[in-house]
Amino acid sequence: MQQRPDRLILIHGAWAGGWVWDKLVPELAVRGRKAVALELPGNGHHPIAPENVAAEDYLKCLDDAIGDGPVALVGHSGGGMLMTAGAEYFGDRVSQGIWIAGMLLPDGKSFDDIQETVAGPGKRFGVTPYIVPSVDGRTSTVPPDAAIRFFFQDLPQGDAETAAARLTPQPAAGYRMTSQTGLAFTALPKLYVLARQDRSVIPEAQWLMCVGVKNLTVKEVDSGHVPQISQPSSLAEMIDGWLP
Predict the structure, then answer these.
(1) Which of 201, 209, 218, 241 is most solvent-facing, going by the fewest CB within 10 Å?
(2) H-helix or E-strand spanning residue 150
(3) Contacts (Cβ under 8 Å, ≥6 apart) of 41
């Protein structure tokens, strides 16, 4: 029998911040679920500047948020990579993992590997070709027009423009991670929320990342890349119904 989590720890993806969960948190609350949205190091809302972030800073941030547990980790997009790491490092305090259009990467693989499997050697899809690296290579950004096209296309135009304008530079330390999975990750009860209209982590890639993963339930939502903004009530209902 699964353990009921005390809290849900919400982990945003690349270029985003805790604000992407603003609509989902109250929807979870009315269903009796306490949720805490993280601000990851280097995201523009955390004390550590993006150019100074190391991978260890991400793990410490997650460790501090988990506390004594048990918690369910909920990761969107690139936040899924930190979830996988958290399941391994802090598995005794993590009761469930939920990936929302997230990077549920096979052991030792990166999202570049997934893209090449789907699109062919050397090829990329979604927003990847539009990412702009900084001169020093320590961060990257996504132009607003590309963000609207690949992340927020199913939002009303004004909402899409507002969300795109809130994106911030992404530290290279948290980008293109490879996953290291083990016994704790394998044993973790997992839910994957597949976004059928996703133009960034396209459905073919989402399905590929789910193949062969043990203890995984897949549920689909008819949304773009960010269902926690476009369909917060439906997403909260799905999460609440799956959790014990």
Answers:
(1) 241
(2) helix 144-150
(3) 48, 53, 57, 58, 61, 171, 174
Calpha distance 116→187 (Å, rounded): 28
Residue 75 structure tokens: 């990761």
What does pLDDT average to over the chain? 94
Identify the band that residue 50 occupies on the pLDDT scale cut at 50, 70 and 90: confident
Alpha carbon distance 62, 201 (integer Å): 23
126/157 Cα distance (integer angstroms): 19
Residue 218 parent element (H or E): strand 216-221
Model confidence pLDDT, tens digit, residues 213-236? 999 999 999 999 999 999 999 999
Say if CB 130 and CB 173 are below 8 A apart.
no
In a domain, 75, yes or no: yes
In angstroms, the CA 207 to CA 192 distance is 9
Query: What is the DSSP-derived secondary structure letter of residue 5?
Result: P
pLDDT at 48 (0 to 100):
83
Q: What are 129's strand-pairing partners?
A: none
* Whether 62 contacts 86, CB under 8 Å: yes
Residue 1 belongs to some domain of the structure: no
CATH classification at residue 235: 3.40.50.1820
Domain containing residue 26: 7-242
Residues 154 and 230: beta-carbon distance below 8 Å: yes
The predicted model gives 151-159 an average pLDDT of 98
pTM of the model as a whole: 0.96
**Into how many domains does the chain fold?**
1
